[in-house]
Amino acid sequence: MSLRISNSMNPTMVEGDNNSQANMEENLDIVEMSISKRDTQTASTMLFECNPEEAGQDLAAVDNLQQLMEYLSGQDDGSAKMIRAERLMKMAMARLRNEFHKILLCNSDPVDPDRSSSTRPSSDGLSRLSSISDNGADDDSGSEMSHAPRQSIDTICEIDTIPSDAVAVLRNIVQRLGSTGYAGECVRVFTSTRKAVVEESLCSLGVQKVSLQNVHKMQWALLDKKIKKWIYAAKISIRLVFAREKRLCEQVFEGFAHMKDSCFVEIAKEPTARLLGFAEAVAASTRSPEKIFRVLDMYETLASLMPDMEHIYCQEPCRSLQAQAAGILTRLGEAARGILTEFEDSLEKENSKTPIQGGAIHPLTRYVVNYLGFLLDYKETLVNLMADMPVDLRKDMPKGFALAMDEDFNGASSLLGIRLQWIVVLLQRNLDGKSKLYKDLALSCLFLLNNLNYVIEKVQGSELKSVMGKEWLRKQSIKLRQYAAGYERAAWTKLLSCLTDEGIPVGGSSSGGISHQALKQRFKAINSAIEEARKSHAGWVVADERLREELEISISEKLIPAYRSFFGTFGRQFEIGKNSYTYLKYTPEKLEKFVFHLFKGSASAPP
């Protein structure tokens, strides 16, 4: 429906007959009839509900009255006609103001969050740290551990909040009110009505005023939920709620730049500041490792909204909101970097003293590696944050890091890669200390072997590989082989040292001139070494199948040929009989079976 302004009452008629007092009275009568007729109608009948011609006549009556007053102002201001015209104008303006208010009220539906987007925030209560923390088993589920999906709208939604017919009437009313000096009333009614709509919309989105103190005291589970709601609400608020209010201001106050800007500022400034205030409180809250992913979510959300805010809040009175948002974005970035530093500090200070049974993978290892994997969900953001805060690692990192960097960090392709490698260094230092909790040196080496192998496997099977670098992986593989060699030396040197003819003197009663007594002692030592290995390996763990097979093959290649040779050479010195079993307790086949049952929970059974 488009409005057409009728010219059935053209004030030029008056101008054409300045001396016709009767004609002037007639025009005033016509205007008063039109204005009074509208006042006698029911309150539910508004201009935009009328047919176009009738609505146009009503607005034209106001235009004609204004022109009559302009004409009369050149005459005697105190004339009865001027007084009558001013009274009629007040009536007309009051009616238009009421019409303006009614139209706004009839089109004041707030944003419905359930219909604003095809997607809603995930309700799974995802907390990365709950997935990162170890419960004794791996969690490699990408779907469960990926960070929260980027929800809601991705661009500004050009949605008209009020039907175009109603907007046209509002704009025509503004033109009349503005041209007759009633602009202030118009702005007051518009801002109060639309601000209430915005407040209701933000309330339905869960946007509330939260102080830093409240955020500081809030339990993480509750804060985590509020942050997820904020991420969703921020996109809807900026790209839909405030965007449509700006569009409505531009449509209704077309041609009145100052009114347009002042209305939008009055409507949007306080609610926007409240929306940003929550992000500011989170950025300034206590830093702990579990918060980093939500802080990065907020950082990415606000960063993506900055271009939209620059477009929406382009008026000079709103520039402070742009500056506030930019400042909060900076503080969120600083918070993320600070949390990462806190994570590193907590890793250095973690000092649990309970050794993991069987030398298995420590929960701390799973925690740290999964933490690093989740960080790469934000790779681009973190790379930018690291670039914004260049770090002289040799100067700022703890003592001993410079040497580690020279030896282990040549493969790093970025500051982020160096940072992640440094976290692994801290983990390895911590694990090295925990390895000393084991009384058995072989088990200590096996513990380090298991944990480093876990780190390498996780890095190789993820995007961490490209960040950490091939050189890093190569040197970690060398270290892995060193741990394996250390385990083999500690676990099997005693047995291997028995499988030589050194210390077996010639002479005695044996047919070969070899001391029979020495052979008995040697085979007793061999049996004892095997028994000791069997008992010590009971319950030892190598969860990774490939690593377990490699260890078994390596041990077998070193041990079985030597034992087979020794057994074949000296075992024949014993006559077959009941006493021979005392010394020839383990055949090469039995020993080989024992070796290939290591780390499977069956090593304690006699081979």
UniProtKB/TrEMBL annotation:
Coiled-coil zones: none
Swiss-Prot/TrEMBL GO biological process terms: exocytosis; protein transport
Pfam families xref list: Exo70_C, Exo70_N
Region annotation Disordered: where it falls in the sequence: 107-148
Domain (Exocyst complex subunit Exo70 C-terminal) ranges: 228-594
Superkingdom field: Eukaryota
Any one GO molecular-function label of the UniProt entry: phosphatidylinositol-4,5-bisphosphate binding
Keywords: Exocytosis, Protein transport, Transport
Regions of compositional bias (Low complexity) in chain numbering: 118-134
Entry GO terms, CC: exocyst
InterPro entries, per database record: Cullin_repeat-like_dom_sf, Exo70, Exo70_C
Reported function: Component of the exocyst complex.
UniProt similarity note: Belongs to the EXO70 family.
Name of the featured protein: Exocyst subunit Exo70 family protein
Organism: Taxus chinensis (Chinese yew)
